[in-house]
């Protein structure tokens, strides 16, 4: 994939929003996010048809603005919505199986430490998500923060693989993530909780 797409990676589900998700996504894209992941997950996430319906609306926004639309951990929904790709964690559906099912889609995989790295089929994925870099309360089961040192280490191991940092990233600390070797930053709350999305995305 074009690694520049990872530059400002916005992730969101309805559980992260205090107002209309479609409006938040439009504002974020207009302000300059480069890729979007629909991550409907956790105790307050939508399920079944309600999840599909919101996904379809967000997918349409991404089509209108020509922004890649990635689904978090739901291979069926990728097909239903015609998504551009899928992001999975270590305990989700295996990247090898996803690559077989979706030879041409973007596949992202989260890798948080050396043990996970060693068992990850990096050659089957388009990019790696590294985190949580900083402390985050957005993900219910987030691991211990790994710091930007983990990005440096991953970059040494993977000089040519697109890498995006995640977890607790804000306009104040994003530069540190890029300087450590990431191609981009992924954020949820920095945007969904912003009082001025345009300013936040620009300062990111
Ligand atoms: N994945 P925020 S941390 C979705 O470590 C997610 O893999 C993580 O939200 C990981 O930008 C995280 O609000 C939450 O901290 C990111």
Automatic annotation (TrEMBL):
<comment type="pathway">
    <text>Cofactor biosynthesis; thiamine diphosphate biosynthesis; thiamine phosphate from 4-amino-2-methyl-5-diphosphomethylpyrimidine and 4-methyl-5-(2-phosphoethyl)-thiazole: step 1/1.</text>
</comment>
<comment type="similarity">
    <text>Belongs to the thiamine-phosphate synthase family.</text>
</comment>
<keyword id="KW-0808">Transferase</keyword>
<feature type="binding site">
    <location>
        <position position="168"/>
    </location>
    <ligand>
        <name>2-[(2R,5Z)-2-carboxy-4-methylthiazol-5(2H)-ylidene]ethyl phosphate</name>
    </ligand>
</feature>
<feature type="binding site">
    <location>
        <position position="110"/>
    </location>
    <ligand>
        <name>4-amino-2-methyl-5-(diphosphooxymethyl)pyrimidine</name>
    </ligand>
</feature>
<keyword id="KW-0784">Thiamine biosynthesis</keyword>
<dbReference type="InterPro" id="IPR036206">
    <property type="entry name" value="ThiamineP_synth_sf"/>
</dbReference>
<keyword id="KW-0479">Metal-binding</keyword>
<dbReference type="GO" id="GO:0009229">
    <property type="term" value="P:thiamine diphosphate biosynthetic process"/>
</dbReference>
<comment type="function">
    <text>Condenses 4-methyl-5-(beta-hydroxyethyl)thiazole monophosphate (THZ-P) and 2-methyl-4-amino-5-hydroxymethyl pyrimidine pyrophosphate (HMP-PP) to form thiamine monophosphate (TMP).</text>
</comment>
<dbReference type="GO" id="GO:0005737">
    <property type="term" value="C:cytoplasm"/>
</dbReference>
<dbReference type="InterPro" id="IPR034291">
    <property type="entry name" value="TMP_synthase"/>
</dbReference>
<dbReference type="InterPro" id="IPR013785">
    <property type="entry name" value="Aldolase_TIM"/>
</dbReference>
<feature type="binding site">
    <location>
        <position position="72"/>
    </location>
    <ligand>
        <name>4-amino-2-methyl-5-(diphosphooxymethyl)pyrimidine</name>
    </ligand>
</feature>
<protein>
    <recommendedName>
        <fullName>Thiamine-phosphate synthase</fullName>
        <ecNumber>2.5.1.3</ecNumber>
    </recommendedName>
</protein>
<feature type="binding site">
    <location>
        <position position="92"/>
    </location>
    <ligand>
        <name>Mg(2+)</name>
    </ligand>
</feature>
<feature type="binding site">
    <location>
        <position position="139"/>
    </location>
    <ligand>
        <name>4-amino-2-methyl-5-(diphosphooxymethyl)pyrimidine</name>
    </ligand>
</feature>
<dbReference type="GO" id="GO:0004789">
    <property type="term" value="F:thiamine-phosphate diphosphorylase activity"/>
</dbReference>
<feature type="binding site">
    <location>
        <begin position="37"/>
        <end position="41"/>
    </location>
    <ligand>
        <name>4-amino-2-methyl-5-(diphosphooxymethyl)pyrimidine</name>
    </ligand>
</feature>
<feature type="domain" description="Thiamine phosphate synthase/TenI">
    <location>
        <begin position="9"/>
        <end position="191"/>
    </location>
</feature>
<dbReference type="GO" id="GO:0000287">
    <property type="term" value="F:magnesium ion binding"/>
</dbReference>
<keyword id="KW-0460">Magnesium</keyword>
<dbReference type="Pfam" id="PF02581">
    <property type="entry name" value="TMP-TENI"/>
</dbReference>
<dbReference type="InterPro" id="IPR022998">
    <property type="entry name" value="ThiamineP_synth_TenI"/>
</dbReference>
<feature type="binding site">
    <location>
        <begin position="136"/>
        <end position="138"/>
    </location>
    <ligand>
        <name>2-[(2R,5Z)-2-carboxy-4-methylthiazol-5(2H)-ylidene]ethyl phosphate</name>
    </ligand>
</feature>
<feature type="binding site">
    <location>
        <begin position="188"/>
        <end position="189"/>
    </location>
    <ligand>
        <name>2-[(2R,5Z)-2-carboxy-4-methylthiazol-5(2H)-ylidene]ethyl phosphate</name>
    </ligand>
</feature>
<feature type="binding site">
    <location>
        <position position="73"/>
    </location>
    <ligand>
        <name>Mg(2+)</name>
    </ligand>
</feature>
<dbReference type="GO" id="GO:0009228">
    <property type="term" value="P:thiamine biosynthetic process"/>
</dbReference>
